[in-house]
C-alpha cells in the first residue's frame, strides 16, 4: 500500500498551495523539496547592513485582481509597500541618449514614432483580451510566428519594435524573435492585458511589495502544514509508476516514497534532471525539452539615500541600449532601505555577464547616472553594495528565471486553449507558475496553478469512487 495519498514535488508556492488543499480535503501527503528552504522562486534576503530585505526572486503583488496571494498577505499580517510612481521615468535610446518623461506618458521621441508604438501597444492589448485570438486556427498561426514577425504584421516600425523588445526582455529575458506571438499574447492575457502587465499603479502587476519579503508567504503557508509533511533537502531524481497504479518517488539520496498520485511543481527545464517510468506523454516531453529561459538577472543596487528622487525621478527606467533593460525603485523608506532593482536581460545581459564583477558594477552605476542625469561620482558615493540573483546557476530552478517558454515551434499551438495547462499523465499532475492561464510568471499564478492541480487530483479520486 502507498505510504500517502499524494506526493507533491517542490515546496514553492504552487506546491504548498496544493498541499494545503489536499490537507483541507483530508488527504495524506508529503512535500519533497530539493532546497534547504521553502518558497521556490521567492527569495527575500536581508541586506548586509541590516536595513530590511530585498527580493532576489518574486517581488510584486496587488490587492485587487490577485486575490489568492493577497489573502495570504492579510492572513499572515504582512506589510504592503506601495510601488513608487511619483515622478518621472528615465528613458535611454540605443545611442545612449537619455531623458525623463512623466509617469503614465510616452517617451519624448518623434511624434510619428510614438504614435506607431502606441498603435502597436493597443493592437497587442486588444488581441490579448480577445478570446478568438486563442482559438484555432488563429492559435496555431500565432504560434508559428515569432512575436517580432507578428509585430511587423501589425505595422510596427523601428521604435515600436524596440518597445516590444522592452516588453519581452522585461517579462522573459528573451528578444521578440526568440518566442512565439502566441506565447507572449498568452502571458499578456493572463496579466489582464499588456498595459496592466507593465503597470505599477493601482491594479497593476507591480503595484505592491512586502516589507517582510515575499518569502514570508511561503514560510507562513508551510507553517500551516504538519511539520513532518515537508521534507527539505530531498531532490527528486525519478518517478516510477507500477502496474498497481501506485508511484514510487526516488530522491538523490536513494530515499523512496510511494503514493497514489504525484503533483509535480518544478519548472519545465528541471524535468530534464528527472527520469520518468513510463516516459512522459510525447507532447509533455516536447514542451519540457524545448522550453527555455532567457537571460534574466536582478542586480539590486543598495544606496545610502534615494538620490534619484532629488531630480524628480520615480526610479522607473527603460533602456533600448542596456545592459539594464528596466529598473524600479525597491526602497522601503521606513527601514532606510533604499535600492534600485536593475533587470539585466537578453543579449546586452549576456555581454554584461562576461565581464568581471568590478566591471559589471561600474557599467551599471555609470548607466544609472546617465539615465537620471546625475554625476557618476555622486552615484558611486551613494552606492552601498549590490545583491545579485543567481537563478542561472540554480539546478532546482532549471537554471533560469522567471519562467521558461518554448520557441516559435508550434508546440503551444498544437492544443486547444487551456488544454496544455490542464493536461496530466495518468495520476501525474503538472503545476507551477508557467502552467496556468492567469498571472503566468507571478506568485498569484503559482498559487492558482497549485490549487488547480489539487482540484484535479481530488476530482479524480471522486470519479474513481463512482466507478
From TrEMBL:
InterPro entries: Amino_oxidase, FAD/NAD-bd_sf, Flavin_amine_oxidase, Flavin_MAO. One of its GO terms (molecular function) is monoamine oxidase activity. Its EC number is 1.4.3.-. Residues 13-457 form the Amine oxidase domain. Pfam families: Amino_oxidase (PF01593). It comes from the Eukaryota. Belongs to the flavin monoamine oxidase family. This is Amine oxidase.
Amino acid at each position: 500500500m502507498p505510504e500517502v495519498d499524494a506526493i507533491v514535488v517542490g515546496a514553492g508556492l504552487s506546491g504548498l498551495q496544493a498541499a494545503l488543499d489536499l490537507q483541507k480535503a483530508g488527504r495524506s501527503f508529503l512535500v519533497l523539496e530539493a532546497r534547504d528552504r521553502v518558497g521556490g522562486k521567492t527569495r527575500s534576503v536581508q541586506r548586509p547592513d541590516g536595513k530590511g530585505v530585498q527580493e532576489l526572486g518574486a517581488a510584486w503583488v496587488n490587492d485587487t485582481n490577485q486575490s489568492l496571494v493577497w489573502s495570504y498577505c492579510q492572513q499572515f499580517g504582512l506589510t504592503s509597500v506601495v510601488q513608487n510612481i511619483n515622478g518621472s521615468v528615465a528613458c535611454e535610446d540605443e545611442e545612449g541618449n537619455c531623458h525623463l518623461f512623466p509617469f503614465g506618458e510616452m517617451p519624448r521621441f518623434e511624434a510619428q514614432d510614438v504614435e506607431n508604438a502606441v498603435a502597436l501597444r493597443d493592437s497587442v492589448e486588444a488581441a490579448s483580451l480577445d478570446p478568438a485570438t486563442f482559438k484555432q486556427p488563429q492559435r496555431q498561426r500565432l504560434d508559428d510566428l515569432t512575436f517580432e514577425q507578428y509585430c511587423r504584421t501589425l505595422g510596427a516600425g523601428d521604435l515600436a519594435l524596440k518597445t516590444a523588445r522592452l516588453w519581452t526582455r522585461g517579462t522573459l529575458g528573451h528578444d521578440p524573435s526568440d518566442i512565439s506571438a502566441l506565447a507572449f499574447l498568452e502571458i499578456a492575457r493572463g496579466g489582464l492585458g499588456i498595459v496592466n502587465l507593465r503597470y505599477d499603479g493601482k491594479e497593476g502587476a507591480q503595484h505592491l511589495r512586502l516589507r517582510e519579503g515575499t518569502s514570508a508567504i511561503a514560510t507562513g503557508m508551510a507553517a500551516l502544514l504538519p511539520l513532518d509533511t515537508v521534507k527539505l533537502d530531498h531532490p527528486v531524481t525519478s518517478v516510477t509508476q507500477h502496474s498497481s497504479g501506485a508511484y514510487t518517488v526516488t530522491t538523490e539520496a536513494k530515499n523512496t516514497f510511494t503514493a497514489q498520485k504525484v503533483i509535480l511543481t518544478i519548472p519545465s527545464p528541471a524535468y530534464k534532471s528527472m527520469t520518468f517510468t513510463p516516459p512522459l506523454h510525447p507532447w509533455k516531453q516536447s514542451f519540457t525539452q524545448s522550453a527555455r529561459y532567457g537571460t534574466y538577472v536582478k542586480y539590486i543596487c543598495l544606496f545610502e539615500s534615494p538620490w534619484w528622487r532629488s531630480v524628480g525621478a520615480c526610479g522607473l527606467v527603460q533602456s533600448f541600449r542596456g545592459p539594464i533593460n528596466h529598473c524600479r525603485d525597491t526602497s522601503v523608506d521606513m527601514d532606510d532601505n533604499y535600492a534600485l532593482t536593475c533587470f539585466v536581460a537578453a543579449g546586452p545581459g549576456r555581454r554584461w555577464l562576461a565581464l568581471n564583477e568590478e566591471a559589471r558594477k561600474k557599467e551599471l552605476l555609470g548607466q544609472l547616472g546617465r539615465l537620471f542625469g546625475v554625476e557618476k561620482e555622486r552615484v558611486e558615493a551613494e552606492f552601498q553594495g549590490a545583491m545579485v540573483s543567481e537563478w542561472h546557476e540554480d539546478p532546482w530552478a532549471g537554471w533560469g528565471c522567471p519562467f521558461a517558454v518554448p520557441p516559435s515551434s508550434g508546440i503551444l499551438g498544437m492544443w486547444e486553449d487551456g488544454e496544455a495547462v490542464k493536461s496530466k499523465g495518468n495520476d501525474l499532475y503538472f503545476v507551477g507558475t508557467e502552467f496556468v492561464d492567469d498571472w503566468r510568471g507571478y506568485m498569484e499564478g503559482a498559487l492558482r496553478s497549485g490549487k488547480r492541480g489539487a482540484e484535479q487530483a481530488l476530482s479524480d479520486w471522486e470519479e474513481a469512487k463512482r466507478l
